[in-house]
Please model this.
Amino acid sequence: MSNFGDLEIFARVVAAGSMSAAGRELSLSPAVVSKRLRRLEDRLGTRLLQRTTRQIALTEAGQGFYERVVAILAGVEEAEAFVSRRSAHARGTLKVSAPTSFGRMHIAPHLVPFMKANADLSVNMLLSDDLVDIVGEGFDVAIRIAELADSSLVARKLAPVRRVLCATPDYLAEHGRPETLADLEGHNCLTHQASDIWRFEGPDGEANFRPQGNLQTNSSEVIREAVLAGLGVALRSTWDVGDELAAGRLVQLLPGHESATNVGIYAIYPSRQFLPVKVRLFIDHFADLFGSVPYWERGVPAGQGRNGEAALNDTPSRPGTGSRNGYHGNGASGHSQESGAPAGE
Model:
């Protein structure tokens, strides 16, 4: 095997998280994988990986080397696809990170058609709300619900995020329906531990409200279950409760007031000149699926922002469109917070 093969083994070990896992993917024994890595490090004269009995970790030199190796391998893959006219076919293993609730509700169900269309592709998907180091942990792409800032990572917007106040009909029948933000002071507001203030965009501009209630938790899913059980009022994303709003199991409150944030759903990936075919096809699949007016908005009343403007553009985006923006993280990406609330809400 050529020196180029050593680079492939190194990249596969980082992406797989262990030499044994990489060996299985490459049909090589762990001993052979270890030998090839040592040969690569000897040739470079530096340690690329810190090895323990349980895991491996990139050294500082290894991380910089890995970013460049991935770019080289992606360029080769693009070149081979161009020559063989297989640019619309993904191969290999795609390692994906996504938030727990959103990944379960809106990524996992739509993986089947994508994988059927790319029979030579394997997907390794991690659902977690923890901070993820995309480069260091070898992820090809991460789905994130966040506001974006400058970074070394690249992002493409897949869908907007709209957060609305809601409660069950039974709760409202017992406690009354708030007609103004001030009316919320008499209601049981279900909050995340970081949500000390709810920030809204309303007909008269921005307005803040400090929620009070008998449930505060670090779990977005606990709040979801509590509001559906009729415990109180919650501020939820339509991707999370769109079906319940459309079916009448939840009622949208104060439709003229929606969360005043610039949060969106993004596909985040390491910044590099060449994007692997498997990553591009994965991102295109979900960008086309979601669009500027995602399917979870069907049947949900469109909110009215300042000057009565619709909260969402009612014209779906063209297939394959989306913004490319820097993402805050220095190689690590997790959920940024929506006005102090978790991105999962």
Summary: Confidence is low (pLDDT under 50) at residues 304-311, 313-344.
